[in-house]
Predict the 3D structure of the following.
Amino acid sequence: MHIFIKLITYFFIIIFICSCLHNASISNFPTNSNKINFDNYSTQINKKKTPIWTFKGSNQYFIEQKKIIDEKELVAIIEKALQTRGNHIVSNNIENKCIIGEKGMSFNEYNSITGVYYRIESDKIQIYIKTQITQDITGGAGNNLSKKLGKLIETALKDIMVKNG
């Protein structure tokens, strides 16, 4: 009986360790913004009449704003926001309009990977942010990490809008 309890204990330890490994990886993220349905997200924003729309209970965030800057400035804002949130840039593909950052574990957040995808049209900028944690047995973070990043980007865009009049 004692050996049976040890075997069960080892079994649960192995399951626990395996469940902590890689819920997400960079290969799970699209490498091209063409794979993001910006029009669908835009439609949902316009139905709600709010400048920002978040999926409830997930780690996605979408921003749609008037075009006030060029692509080079937008990429700089996205990179700075990622770095401010503790990410290092893993991939920055301007041709595919995709920036991917990776963040190590901190005191109050798990390791995570964030993909930021953007589309610039003649009159508006659209940004889709998706974050996934890489190690977790609880099934997900309790807060929307993409929203935190999105708020930084949105604030930077608003600051530029105010500065430009």
